[in-house]
Amino acid sequence: MANPTSRAEDLCSFIAASPTPHHAVRQAVNRLSDAGFTVVAESDRWPAEAGSYVVVRGGSVIAWRRGVAVDPTAGLRLVGAHTDSPNLRLKPHPDDDSGRWRRVAIEPYGGVLWNSWLDRDLGVAGRLFVRAEAGQSTPVLVNVNEPWLRIPQLAIHLDRNVNTDGVRLDPSRHLDPVWGLREQGTTDGIIAAVANHVGIDPLEIVGAELMCHDVNAPAITGARGEFISSARIDNQLSCWAAVQALVEAPVPEGGIVMICLFDHEEVGSQSATGADSRFAADVIARIAASADLDIEDEARLRANSWAISADGAHATHPTRPEAHDARHLIDLDGGPVVKFNANQRYATTAEGVAWVTSLADSLRIPLQHFSMRNDLPCGSTIGPLSAAALGIPTVDLGVAQLAMHSAREMCGTLDAGRFVDLLRAALSS
Fold first, then answer.
1. What is the C-alpha separation between 169 and 112, in angstroms, rounded?
2. Where a domain ends, among 214, 245, 265?
3. Contacts of 183 by beta carbon, 8 Å cutoff, 6+ apart
4. Quick one: 32 and 164 in the same domain?
């Protein structure tokens, strides 16, 4: 197993460079390309040769390795995760310069823990679409990793009951960040300011997809470095672990190993780039065709396959243990977490648990088992959706964390490395 500290530092580097799903995809592609993977386009014919390949669709990426001869009985080994995280996204007309303040109109994305974004120094990142020839446009990744924006909290003198009644926020009025003071004659908006900052003529911008992020860098914390504190641990930790596992996994002789990192999980996965799309199914079909498998052999391939849905899990809260099922308490750094739900909010099956347990035992990696309190609604993952779409048995598995969906979350340093090792074993099984 690799050094836990070096693994944790590498995870921090990955997250720091990935303020948006599109940046996370670029990080994944860069690491895979450095490991010898070839990038292919969906619109091109794909090589028939065995090898290692990557295809990108928006904020999603799928990568795979296959050997010279694909044996349908060897099956497919797949790890899925999601690239998106709850955050604050700029509206199409984001500028609100009423009064003295220059504010940015935002829309909460996913299950944002609103109060965690207050009093934080925020940057802005995403994509600008630049005018090209023949009415086309070119997307350009941008990242203003500087403290341009802030959502100031109301002082306690003006909200005397805040400590007893809690912070009450109206997302239509209280979450728009300020980014400056309006001056006479100032007309440039936030999109133009971002364009100028990265050296793009604002007049050439024909579209924008921008979102806020905390500019505080990821850090290894705790008196002995036990913790990782960072934005977007949910679910960039799983994306990073999947990429590392695929890079380190051996090329299969008869099967196929694959990772699928999807966008839009936090809002239901129903998009052209989400887990509820045809993206993964189409890629598998094209790989099967390139290996000269007919429809019968492709069905056999899937029937002999296993998948892991890799996503964060709730650790037992140190000051709110009553929020958890007392029979299923989860520790930070207690080992990867297998997630169960009888109503199929997670895709884990008994057969899948047996498979993952045998892998963990062989590596001497401890496993934990999570089940939600019956009187609280359970979250979900890409697991049930991808399992239904692909017909591949799936296990929901993740690293325990605290403050899920906060602007800054935390997990344990040991489990980050353990997760890579376990996913690599799953891909190699």
1. 12
2. 214
3. none
4. no
Stated pTM of the model? 0.96
Per-residue confidence (pLDDT) for residue 203, from 0 to 100: 94
Query: For residue 272, how far is the Cα from the chain centroid?
Result: 16
- Return the ∠ at Cα 17 (arms to 142 and 427), rounded to 5°: 125
> Do 251 and 386 sit in the same domain of this protein?
yes
On whether residue 223 sits in a domain, the answer given is no
- Domain range for 196: 87-214
Sequence-separated (6 or more) residues with CB below 8 Å from residue 292: none
**Residues 68 and 15 both lie in one domain:** yes
Residue 4 has pLDDT above 90, yes or no: no
The phi and psi torsions of 420 (rounded to 5 degrees) equal -60, -45
For residues 410-429, average pLDDT: 97
Looking at residue 142, which CATH number applies to its domain? 2.30.250.10
Q: Residue 186 pLDDT more than 70? A: no
**What torsion, rounded to 10 degrees, do the Cα atoms 232, 234, 239, 244 define?**
90
Asked if pLDDT for residue 185 goes beyond 70, the answer is no
- Domain ends where: 183, 214, 245? 214
Q: SS3 string of the chain? A: CCCHHHHHHHHHHHHHCCCCHHHHHHHHHHHHHHCCCEEECCCCCCCCCCEEEEEEECCEEEEEEECCCCCHHHCEEEEEEECCCCEEEEEEEEEECCCCEEEEEEEEECCCCHHHHCCCCEEEEEEEEEECHHHCEEEEEEEEEEEEEECCCCCHHHCCCHHHHCCCCCCCCCCCCEEEECCCCCCCCHHHHHHHHCCCCHHHEEEEEEEEEECCCCEEECCCCCEEEECCHHHHHHHHHHHHHHHHCCCCCCCEEEEEEECCHHHCCCCCCCCCCCHHHHHHHHHHHHCCCCHHHHHHHHHCCEEEEECCEECCCCCCHHHCCCCCCCCCCCCCEEEECCCCCCCCCHHHHHHHHHHHHHHCCCCEEEECCCCCCCCCCCHHHHHHHHCCCEEEEECEEECCCCCCEEEEHHHHHHHHHHHHHHHHC
